[in-house]
């Protein structure tokens, strides 16, 4: 009986080569990303970006909270009462 050839060494070598290549590529990507972030911080003013983003976010949250107050909270009850009073004044109330 003849032994079957084993090609595992070639597959293992290919796996090693691919892993080494990917590791090298990941290291280069990491280096490039760090350099890009570093350059961004040197050429831009991150404090301004942070401040502008914070202000925009605060504005959005405030708008959502005010909207929620008038749609579902005490503001809705106050508006409903004021509207009913005005409608009654104008003869529309029941």
Overview of the structural elements:
This protein has 94 residues and is mainly alpha-helical. The protein folds into two domains: 10-44; 46-94, no CATH class. The protein has three helices and no strands. α2 crosses α3. The radius of gyration is 33 Å and the shape is elongated. The mean pLDDT is 89.
Work out the number of β strands.
0
Radius of gyration: 33 Å
Sheet with most strands: none
**Overall 3D form:** elongated
Strand percentage lies at under 5%
Question: What secondary-structure arrangement, pairings included, does this model have?
Answer:
Blueprint: H1 8-43, H2 46-72, H3 74-89
Helix pairs in contact: 2-3
Features:
94 residues, 2 domains
What's this entry about, in short?
This protein is mainly alpha-helical and 94 residues long. 84% of the residues lie in helices and 0% in strands.
